[in-house]
Write a structure and sequence with these properties.
Layout (H helix, E strand, L loop, with lengths): L2 E3 L11 E3 L3 E4 L6 E4 L2 H8 L3 H12 L3 E4 L4 E5 L4 H15 L10 E5 L5 E5 L5 E3 L5 H8 L19 H16 L17 H21 L17 H24 L2 E3 L5 E3 L2 H9 L6 H21 L3 H14 L4 H10 L5 H7 L1 H10 L3 H16 L4 H4 L3 H10 L5 H10 L4 H30 L1
Antiparallel strand pairs: 1-2, 3-4, 4-6, 5-6, 7-8, 8-9, 10-11
Helix pairs in contact: 1-2, 2-3, 2-4, 5-6, 9-10, 11-13, 11-14, 12-16, 16-18, 17-18
Length: 451
Amino acid sequence: MSLLNIGGGDDPAYRYKMPAVVGKKEGIGNGKKTVIVNATDVGKSLKRPGQYLVKYVSVELGAISTWDKEQGSGTVNGWHETPTLQDKTNKFIKEWVLCPKCKLPETSMEVGKKKDIIFDCKACGYHGVADMMHKLATYILNNPPDSKGGIMDKANAGKKTKEDRKAEKKAKKDARDGKKDDSDDDEDDDGKQSWDKRGGDKVAAAADKAAAAGNEDDDDDDDDDDWAVDVSDAAVKAREDQAQASFDKIESAMKETKIEDEGGGKKEKKSKKDKKKEEDEDFGPSPMEEQMAKIRAAMVPALEKSEGGEIDEAVKMLGAVAKDNDLKPIDLFGFIFESFDENAVKQLGSHSKLLAKLYKAAPDKKKTQTFLLTCVANLACGEHKEGLMKKTPVMMKKLYDLDLLSEEAIVAWYDKGSKKKDGKAVREAAAPFVTWLKEAEESSEEESDDE
């Protein structure tokens, strides 16, 4: 088989070569799949695990992928032509293999302490961070590379045993209470550090690691400190209670614009005509409406910065709004989605990085996903219902691709159903995307059973 130049080009003397991608179509109907037969060989020539290549191709094609460890091949759902696979492979090389500076495939990859993917070029000395917004970045963080060009064995990736965690917890408690075991005071004859010293270092390292894992967002941006939180048990409990209160507050506030409580009696929906009549009769806005309007106005500059690509500045400005109004990231989602109009799909893309940062800062991911689905439903059934209802699958796909909505959350929301007319309508509109998710999952499970 003839070899290709890594990165393209026709120079026969170019010393960086790779085999051409070989694709094989299999299955029929919903079981259609394409096997990248030589994924391992291609990966070795690129000094990258074959799994990364297969995952990247599947993400770019909007499909589900699986990996056969014994065969060293990857499978992508659906039938895809070999030239298409080669084109996606070339794109993978450009983004994840070639050095951005010298354009040579001499980069090594490793996961940094701050959960970012770092490239080091042996040819020119380049040192930089990969595109952490791509879905492949999440896969790499969950499956870090080893020093030999493969994927690190999770069993040997430094995971602590139950006994280790108990020992660290006890050591941390002893250090906090000022307690020490008698053996901690002993030091061997060679002048080595006592257990107390070594244990203290170990506890400090464990605390740092726990804090990093709890926050999930360890980007280099200094702005992330705006969302930093204490990870102690008391602080976590207080934060969860506060998040619940904020969630209830924002949900109640959003309903306030549509529903009026007349003297504590039965709440009735008001038409636009009724609202206009109230204004004509000099019924001023309620305190809640005034507060909502104030927050909306304060968020406008931040959203303009986000749309212009100034994410760091947008985060700072939203942090100030949140602090002034006692809001949490989940609250801000409601106001951001409320600002969307008939161009909601495009606006989701414009604010994708900002939404990702807010999501990473949210302490309860499950509740945040539930709220995001509510925001999408409100958009689809709101003022621009005629244009946005049919775009419901597109909006959900956008949030799914950004890792803001999981497959489990979407399917659970859909299967739960709704007794309300709008609730049923938005689920019917989302049905094609949910069906695609379910079929992809079933196909993946069938393939795993066959293997």
